[in-house]
Amino acid sequence: MQRKLSLSLLALSALALTACATPDAGKPPMTMGGRMAVASLTPTQGNQVRGLVMFHAMDGHLMVHAKLSGLKPNGEHGFHVHENGSCASTDGSSAGGHFNPDGQPHGPQQTAHHAGDLPALKADAEGAVDQKFMLMGPTLGQGAGNLIGRAVIVHAQADDYATQPTGNSGARIACGVIAGH
User: Fold this and answer.
1) Rounded Cα–Cα distance for residues 166 and 118 (Å)
2) Which of 11, 39, 40, 115 is deepest in the core (most CB within 10 A)?
3) HSE of 37 in the Cβ direction (CA atoms, 13 Å)?
4) Could you tell me which residues are beta bridge partners of residue 81?
5) Is the Cβ–Cβ distance between 142 and 37 less than 8 Å?
6) Residue 56 has what pLDDT?
């Protein structure tokens, strides 16, 4: 049963990662061929957030596609890669702090920031997210910025991108470990 579940997750991940590289109408296709990774997010105790976060290394950056449900409708949520690849605790604390191999302050993408600081997730009226963005710096499987084996965390509140070192984004409501393919 475990093997069937793993193979199903792998197939779903591959399909989802293909969607990551599908160009939007009117835009040229993106170059394929880089490493891929996925995190299957499950809720922490008392929460309902579930989904996938797909990573695709291409052309010197990472494309990220977050597809989640169970969020606060029309809410904004902090979203980070954390240092430990563990979601064993009921509150997500086993994931540790934000992934920060370069010792940078917490902040938004356009300034100095942790390698694990990601753009906010913005849920629709049904509490779902289908969001894509690009990261510069983090990698899949190489160097100090390697995200594989770390945890992705969704937080209950918006990230203020100012409070150090966390962004004051509240409780951890979903967690998933990034697995490479």
Assistant:
1) 12
2) 39
3) 24
4) 152
5) no
6) 95
- 70 — pLDDT class (breaks 50, 70, 90): very high
* Residue 9 confidence class, pLDDT cut points 50, 70, 90: very low
C-alpha to C-alpha distance for 159 and 167, rounded to whole angstroms = 5
What does the alpha-carbon distance between residue 116 and residue 83 come to, in Å, rounded to a whole number? Answer: 8
Question: What is the domain class of 2-22+34-180 according to CATH?
Answer: mainly beta
Q: How confident is the model at residue 114 (pLDDT cuts 50, 70, 90)?
A: low
Q: pTM (2 decimals)?
A: 0.80
**Where in the chain are the domains?**
2-22+34-180
Residues 168, 174, 175: CA angle, nearest 5 degrees: 100
| Strands, sheet with 36-43, edge to edge from the N-terminal-most edge strand | 79-82, 151-155, 172-180, 36-43, 50-58, 61-69, 129-135
For residue 162, the tally of other CB atoms under 10 A from its CB is: 11
